[in-house]
Structures are given as structure tokens and as C-alpha cells.
Amino acid sequence: MKDAWRDCEGWRNSKLPMTSSNDDACKWFDASLTQITTMYADDEAGGMGNSFKNMMEADPDFVMGQVFVNSMKFGGSKTETEEVIKTVDSILALAAKQKVTERESKHVTALKLVTEGKLTEAIEVYRNILKDSPTDLLACLLAFFKYYELGMFNEMLDMMASVIDAYTPETPGYSTILGWKAFAHEENSQLPEAEENAYKSLAASPRETFAIHTMAHVHLEKGMHDAGLAFLQSKEKYWASCSLACHIAWHEALFHVEKGQFDLAVKVFDEKVKIIARGNFNDASSLLYRLAFEDVRVPQRWKGVLDLVDKFSGHHTWVYTDLHILFTLYRNGEKERANDLLEGLKEYVTKNTGTNAQVTHDVGMPLCAGITAFEEGHYETATNCLNSVYSKLNRIGGSRAQRDTFVQLLLHSAIKSSNPDHKVLARTLLNQRKSDRVEDPLGDRLLMLLDSKSG
């Protein structure tokens, strides 16, 4: 086991004491945290699963270990099940029995809130932890990705700005924090700051995943597709082995789609976009849907994505995923299953009060209506539905690059609509899109399409 991983004393010295007297458990906690935040498996640790296993075997009553494992397991806005309730109650009882620190107790409280679907309330607890313990990387990690799922990027940037001064190059997680801050800047359209922090992060660790990821975003937002491809290719020796590899490959494919190089985009899909997890499912569905806008027909690849739908359907843990399930069902001709999904979502929003249920009600359902109308050829209705929540798109979560699928859907709907006002809307959106980009071949193609429909 690496000496750099913190034992009980190491965590105390970091001002993050653990209620455990087992040095191995504390070291395995650090090994797990390091791998999850850097997004690279450590061969010596045997990977994430092995690190968690060794941590809990070393100290089965390790409260922060229990919190960590179950935060990963029950990290979505799950409807409470008997398993979830039993697990969280046992952690609460264990924390009370051991009289854990206030910081650890807050982590348990946040976990309970997450499993109840109260995501914004959970974030507030994480932020409270960070006020007193700004280098609590687990609290920052969990809040960061909740902000991402909820599209709360102003708040994300505020959090990153509030903790960054507590980090020095010697602080564990330093390069990761810089990478996360870079991403928060990018999502707030602060591209120079994003680039500055990304390169600081890469100077500290050349393989820092989120710094590489952020620079893919920066190049896309600037319309610098060739430079973006060159950057990703220069860093591929690092990112190809990280847990975000599929998503970064998705960015690589997007550069090709933007440039009109559809065969190369499909090649990246086939060779690098592995459909093995929720995020990868969303990326795969999103990429194929964007290719469909360009009249690229890939029915067999859509079938491969369809094979994964049952893994995610019915859980309603994140509206962004439900929307991509709907894409996938329609593109596979599964209209009956699409109707079942829509009915399930209607029931979900009437029976649940958590954060995701509210977002699904306010934004997700109009988007579903817009997708359905588009797929059925009712373009005026589709435009009205999609445009009604255009200003609220951030609430479904995901990055601006990811949400651009829905912007493109609105554009295609408006261009195909027979309503003249919708043509004006499309032109306005396209002019906004092109204003900040060095090059925008995708926007140029859409303008040509709009001109052909307007004539």
C-alpha cells in the first residue's frame, strides 16, 4: 500500500480526522478517493472495487467508509426502497453509537437527504462541511456532481472559488480542484479563466482528467474544432485509460460532427464510445441523435443503444437520462415503450416531491412533449413545447455541450415548422450561436437549411 495514502494520523494532520483507529481502512479510503476524483484506476490498489472492499474489510464499522460506498451506490435521486432505508438507518445508528465528529455526522445527514431525493438540501449540507473543512475532497466531489446534475453552475463556481485558497500544490487533490474550477468557469462562459485554470491543473498533473475534459469544452465553445481534435489527440495517452474516456471520446466525435466529418464521427463511436454505464448510454444516444439530424442512418448502432434501455428505464434518477431513453425508443421504432415511459414519468411527478421530480415536472415533461411531436412530424407543436423551456434547459443538468442536443432539436423543429415566427426564432438562435465561434460549419449548414425553407 502506498505510503502517500493517509493513515489515521495523516487524516488528523490534514484536519479531517476519521472516527476509526484502523490505519488500513483510512489508507484504503484515501486510495478510493484518489481514484474516484482523478478518474484513474490505481494498479497497486487493484481498482476502485478492490479499494472499497479492502476498506470495509479492514473496518466494517467505519462510518465514513460506509458513507463513501453508499454515496456512490445511492448517488442518484432514488425513490426510497427498503434496502436504501435500512442501509441509511444503520449508518445513522452507527454514527450515533460511535459519537462521530460533527463533519462526519453531516456527511451521514447529506447521504440521507440524497437518498430521499432532496438534492438541493444535500448540497447545502456539503457546502456547510466545506465552510469549516474546505479540503474535504469527498464533500466537494459530491456537491460538484450534484451541481452538475442540476445545472447549477453559478453555485458550482462559487463553491470552487470558496475552497481553492485552502489548497497548495502539496494538498491532496490540488490538480483536481483546479480542473473542477476550470470546468465551472467554462460552464459560466468564462473561457479565459477556464483555460488558465485547466493549464494550471495540467502543469501540476499532465493527466488530470477534468482539465483535459474542460479544454475539450473550451475548444468547442470557441469553434476551434481542429485545435480541439489536436489537443485531445495529444492527451489521449492519458485520457484513454480514465473513467471519463467514453465521454471525452464523445467530445472527439462532436468535433467531427461539427466539421461535417460524419464517417469519422461514426468511427469514433464504434471504436471508443463504449456503452457500459449510464453516462456512456447518454453520450451514445446523444451522439446518434445528432447524427440523425445530419441524415446519417445507423440503425444497427441504435439497436445497440436500445439493448441498454432496460438498465435505466423506470428508475427516474435523472431526467437527463429519461430524455435520452425517449430518444432511443423513438429512433428504434419502439412507440409503445415510449408511451409507457411517458406514462411512467407522469405518475412519477405526481407521486414524488424530490428535486428530480420537480425538474421533470417543470422542464422534462415539456421536453418530452417536444421530442414526441418532433418524432411524429408535428414541428410547430414541437417548437412551441421546446421553446417554452429553452430558458430553463440548464435545470435538466449536464453541460452546455450536452444540452446542445436539445438546442439543435429546437432549431430543427423551428426550421421545419410552417410558422413564420419560428423561422425568425431559428435565425435568432443561430446568429447567437455563431457570434462567439471562430468557425461554425454546423451553424452554417443550419442557416443554409433555414434559407432553403424560407424561400
UniProtKB/TrEMBL annotation:
Q: Which organism is it from?
A: Magallana gigas (Pacific oyster)
Q: Does the keyword Repeat apply?
A: yes
Q: Which family does it belong to?
A: Belongs to the TTC38 family.
- Tell me the superkingdom of the source: Eukaryota
* The name this protein goes by in its record: Tetratricopeptide repeat protein 38
Taxonomy, top ranks, is: Eukaryota, Metazoa, Spiralia, Lophotrochozoa, Mollusca
Question: Any idea which UniProt keywords this protein has?
Answer: Repeat, TPR repeat
**Is Lipoprotein one of the keywords UniProt gives this record?**
no
**Gene3D superfamilies linked:** Tetratricopeptide repeat domain
